[in-house]
Protein 1
Amino acid sequence: MYQTIDFLKQAYTSLKSSIKWQTQLDEFDIIFLGVLITLILHFILNRIRIPRRDYNQSYWTFIKSQVFLGLINYCPGVSSFLEKKKEEALKSFSHSLDKYTTNKTFKIPENGMGYDKINERLKSWIDRDSKNYYSGKVSGSLYVHNDQQFIEDCQEFTKNFLYSNPMHADLWPASRQLEAEVIKMTGELFGQDKEAIGMLTTGGTESILLAILAYRNWAETEKGITQPNIVIPETAHAAFYKAGEYFKIQVRTAKVNQKTFTVDLKDLKSHINSNTICIVGSLPNFPYGTQDPIEELAAIAKKKKIGFHVDACLGGFIVAFAKEKGMNYGNYDFTLDGVTSISCDQHKHGLAPKGVSTILFKTRQLRQYAFFSTATWSGGAYAVPTTQGSKTGVGAAGAWFTMLAIGRKRYIELSKSIINATIQLAKQINEIPELEVCGEPKINCVCFKSKGNINVYSIHQILTSKGWNLNTTQNPNGIHISVTQQNIQNLKVFVQDIKEAIKEIKTNPSKYKSGGDMGALYGTTQKIPDSKFAGNALKLYLDSVLKL
Ligand SMILES: Cc1ncc(COP(=O)(O)O)c(C=O)c1O
């Protein structure tokens, strides 16, 4: 020990004398210069943006994307060319949306408009739009069963809550009660018999954001994690990436088995480290409608002492009722050790009007990590459970009315019909020699890909011309349909239309080689070496959606 101190002393003295000898500076000058150089370096380094490789990016993709961005930013003429292209794209997006924009209003009218005129506009919009959303040829989007009287009764009930604001629980106690009852009824579906611990949100995305926020705050407070990451199957919903972006959490994606289209557990485990705050499983996932191995994921989370979110936004209301009919989806709720949060959407297969979902937590402590409160704000003590401040009571009212009016028995029947139709549809598509269903969907969505040369996006192109409104997937390229009470009657027509589309493509292969608009879109985005650049280009579409 003494020897070490002695050595350090000697080293310091010789360093001091050598610097003095070299520069003739005194000790104060040396300290001053040292601090100055440190500050200058700090200033420079803070201004240089050193590109960082994304966790999910390979070194090769990273290099390609940097070269690509370098070309865009520094090659003369390239950025102005891109600006021009962006303007053109914006115009073209706006033009395609403008086709459906009638009676534009740019300013508040000087004198209020008569109700007759307002209703005239409303009628023309509803007459036109309802032909699309009630066409019975739409994937997902509108889930309510086709009972016009039920829809009208629900509208009649919910309109009473249009001006309510459940943030003021004292002024609108009925709104507060409806919200708490919806949470309670939903919690009960997922094994929270005694106390439901949840929040009512505006949709699946907000439920997921709040779950991830809770895990981040929990991990920071209780485990000291300041550089958090989440590990999700690559099929998990885009809302998890949104949470990563909003809350600055690294998102690590785990591969999906290309036969079962469910998460590869070995790969998932390999991404977990000491900064992992939670893992995710979907019931089912949106792209393929397949269900991740929830029980195994729960066991991993429990062993690693991290959170496990079950995303049942899409399938929760189907699976929970199917269980009562004896169908076995394994265990997935709070009775399974390891499950710490569940999201479930009333506004999907809960059949409620839009704008309502539930996020449930295993414990009150975990839920508190998603709440916001401040006792020191000059506006007074303030506490809200979700991302909203003032909010409408319509969401809770719509969900409450729907859950009570439909009742358990009808939910069970409706869920069973969706499951049967999904299994049947997957079987029929698998019988088409040119196609193959991705995995084994058993809940409410089916996705299929091409087995041979046929461009699946060309099938999409033809189906669109036949009035279908479907989703396309990538990696692999496919067509996804979410089975709903609206399109369930038309699934036979759907299969027939697919067969006809294949026939048409085969008789005119050169015309259908490229896959139409979708083929062009994915063809381009998949070729762009920087995925963020491609993603940002899509924001142009949002500019045009919000523009008149
Ligand atoms: C599995 C899954 N999770 C989350 C969401 C997000 O729900 P929302 O669109 O209500 O925000 C969806 C939407 O389709 C979904 O399918």
Protein 2
Amino acid sequence: MYALGVSCYYHDAAAALLHDGVLVAAAEEERFSRLKHDYRFPTNAIRFCLEQVGIAGNDLDYVVFFEKPFRKFDRILMTALQTYPRSWKVFRESMISWMIDKLWVGTTLQSELGISKEKVLFCEHHLSHAASAYLCSPFDEAAILTVDGVGEWVTATCGVGLGNEIRLSKQIEFPHSIGLLYSAFTAFLGFEVNEGEYKVMGMAPYGVPRYVEKVWKVVHQNRDGSFSLDMDYFCFHESTERTYNRKFVSLFGEPRPAKLQFFTKETGFPKNFGDPPGNYDELCKLNQHYADVAASIQRVTEELLLNMANHLHRETGLKRLCIAGGVGLNSVANTRILKETGFEQVFVQPAAGDGGGALGAALWAYNSLLGKPRSFTMRHAYWGRSNSEAQIGDFLRQNAIPFRYFDDDDELLNHVVEGLAQGKVIGWSQGRFEWGPRALGNRSILADPRNPEMKDIVNSKIKFREPYRPFAPSVLAECAEQYFDLAQAQYHDPARYMLYVVPVRESHRSTLPAITHVDGTARLQTVFGDQSPRYYRLIERFGQATGVPVLLNTSFNLKGEPIVNTPADAFQTFFNSEIDALVLENYCVDKAQVRPHG
Ligand SMILES: [Fe+2]
């Protein structure tokens, strides 16, 4: 039996295909369309899923959409009407986009896939989130926490999964939303909503949470973990352009201009920004204020989630917790939940945001609705498209790109390790691309984490990012505990997907300067020999050569672009940056040969 899950029309459109309840393919649309956070109907991702197993649309038994469009439309309509006429613009824009396609997604699915109406099912948004974590977790019974911006009406739920059933017993409704609260601060700090949340999380360690009390003025939490926003400070419910209002500004000051370069006394002036400006000291002070705001909203978000999780633990008495929804990508909060609540094990799958809703919707239909036993546990993130050796060879030859081909895998790995140890930055593409926003060794840029200059090199020559974005380490799972403060690291699934941030052990902070963030932490990825054997061997070899089985791993893309998919995407990124060598399976391209004069 084939069940296809689909999510789209908000952000991160995606498709995920199950065969007899086992995931066989999953991908976000942006990887194909090359449009970051592409929210449109995922034609390409669906086509990929079908091609991966060689079936046509009408071979599908069920197609499951990740939310209920009419219920969502109800919320948008009701909210716009309640705040009319202030919301006239929201109202007009919503009517246009909903009337054109969003309401009729069922019909679109039928016509695109050539299937009958009976095969199209709809799962509630937060149930899709809950299912996307619990039903592919290794747990037979677990508490469930879902937290995001907003689905139809709901913004957070608590519940329990038992066998193949999910019971969500409590929920919080729009406009009270932790996701939208965090997004309002993301916008205030000059970043793009739904994109810049990671930047807020990365900026927070540069600040002191001195505005926590002020943040608690705009959000209130009850003893049972439920919460509400003071809507006097926000306007996301009545505006398409602004999320916070003048009252918010009177509390936190003027918003951070989007173009203001970020640096503080602690970071110094980044080399890749050029010469320091004349008003350097003044700008350091200003940025410090914004870093303090970032630290404050991050701290309150963690407290909100900790209180919810603690209450859920007390109520259920369960030892295991599944987290989903966009807020589940807040790796710092996930780690505090593990360490500061009664839950002993946490599961988050790599596409915790709305893309993951496609997976959840399909799993819910198969396991919960049809009552079929659970037969799938997610152990890795490699569910996307792969490039065959023939495709790579054809691409390189057709474009007259000089390459070296390694027949022998070991020889290739030794060659790459040698380059890394010499300080080279490598673009690395192998196997199927990752599910979710993180690159986990199949579409990654790799470098030596021991080199104190490497953070600056990768930032200035390749990623063109600001210093608050730390680089992550990939470490052999069984060596993780030696370098990072995470007891029994290999038993914690979120660490497979960079969804925990933990302290780097004091004794190794000077060994690993390029992946140690300003507060001494790192967003580690544990790499397993049985799930990613070739990447595992690469790190192992690097460890044998240098004594440190850790690599710096950042996503294979340029700033603002989706992570690469095809050989052409990878080559373009390689060519337009200062990456020294490109490895596509066993093909190796050297920058010196492609661009001999720099
Ligand atoms: Fe969501």
